[in-house]
Amino acid sequence: MAISREQVLHVAKLARLAxxxxxxxxxxxxxxxxxxxxxxxxxxxxxxxxxxSHPLALVNVVDADEPRPxxxxxxxxxxxxxxxxxxxxxxxxx
Length: 94
Prior knowledge:
Elements: H1 5-14, H2 21-42, H3 73-77, E1 83-84, E2 87-88
Antiparallel strand pairs: 1-2
């Protein structure tokens, strides 16, 4: 299945992109190359391949949640444009 010029223009319109004729041609070629690569994958016999979300096992990379010293209030407020009653002062929304 090839991507037509009209399809590229339609997607560009949906994305609110103004494309030059050169860009339309280039994107058509690139999208057709992507579809060709996907077509090659679909030709493979993958019946015995289990579905995966990642090729490698993922592990939790978040540090343990352990208490530790934090900034003193004065240090935290040192670069605040404005503070009031030991807190950040922010403009009212509205």
